[in-house]
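Agenda item 2: heme C complex prediction
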Amino acid sequence: MRFAVLTLAFASVIACGVLIAQQQPATPSPWAYGFATPPGPAGANAPAAAPAAAPGGQAAQAPPDTTMHKLPGSDRSFTLTQIRDQYGPADWFPGDHPAMPDIVAHGRRDAQVAACSLCHYPNGKGRPENAGVSGLPYSYFVQTMMDFKNDKRKSADTRKANTNRMISFAKAMTDDEIKQAATYFSSMKWTPWIRVVEAGTVPKTRIAGGMFLVLEGAEAGKEPIGQRIIETPEKTEDTEQLRNSHSGFIAYVPPGSIKKGEAIVTTGAGKTTQCAVCHGADLEGLGPVPGLAGRSPSYIVRQLQDMQLGTRKGEWTDLMKPVVAKLTAEDMLNIAAYTASRVPGESRRSAR
Ligand code: HEC
Ligand code: HEC
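Presented output:
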């Protein structure tokens, strides 16, 4: 009798394991990678081609971009062309950060390395479709750049064109340029940048370059959040047009997700290891291990999925392999909702 009960218990543990295995994302979650639909069958995933030039060279006749834009709190002004310059984008707030090394401010045109400050901003806060890079440990920064360079860090969704660009930059950079960028970005602390809001319904959005933007005018409306995190600029124009490095993001997360994520992160919930062991008590990083607190939840889910699906397999990723092995897509969403909601610097402030 006792044996039968044990066998039954054992069998249900196995059944449970199978169930968990089935829930694991076999394909990456589209929302985390900035897409509305999952990737298609192999071969159908090429990044969309650039639209063909207008017939008759109309594009060349576009009016010259002479309007100067300004931002409150900045004494500078730029045209849109200057703001988006791949080899020297606008630096609205030079007082925010130490002097930028040339590779960060301008990239290197002859090697087609765009300025880091274009996508990650001069202050390294970044955007959901790329990454926050300030406050990362120096040695982690260098290691992950080497992983990009050595084809050990790719996106699980091959449509993600900006990750492919990131890889091409790492390959073209010299060791010295990598060290300069790592020194610069690791010298700045990670500070609050994303406001996490639990919500059953969210504004309707469109996707531009991997970022969710709230629809305006006649298209505006609400829709159920479902099992997604929708991370969108606080102010669309400030982010999309002006690349205002003081204008942050809102992350809408499903109701109850923060609490569920807290249970997994702090106890392991029987399926993983407590994150604080390696990422630090306040999840702000420990030695060479990067911080998670207050960082983009879409970015965090992308990394967990890339690691589980095996497209991110860098020198140090083995330590994360057992951590992600049994997580479902929903677990990852809940974990990211919680880590994003942690306010960086909180424990430093309350200790005073
Ligand atoms: C065209 C936009 C773009 C530019 C320019 C760019 N990056 Fe990135 N970077 C990305 C994207 C996208 C990712 C995230 C990849 C992902 O989530 O799949 C990323 C990720 C990173 C990461 C990983 C962050 C982490 O937490 O592991 C580092 C480090 C980094 N970039 C450094 C740089 C440096 C240094 C430069 C300048 C030479 C640079 N990037 C220029 C788009 C860019
Ligand atoms: C045994 C140590 C260890 C534990 C436990 C651990 N991590 Fe990690 N984590 C690492 C290391 C080391 C890296 C760097 C991996 C790499 O370079 O590819 C990392 C990287 C990450 C990254 C990518 C960060 C970035 O900037 O790209 C995420 C996300 C992450 N961990 C989440 C978690 C979560 C969530 C937990 C708990 C459920 C957790 N980790 C538990 C060691 C650990």
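Discussion summary: Confidence is low (pLDDT under 50) at residues 1-22, 48-58.
Owner for follow-up: CH.
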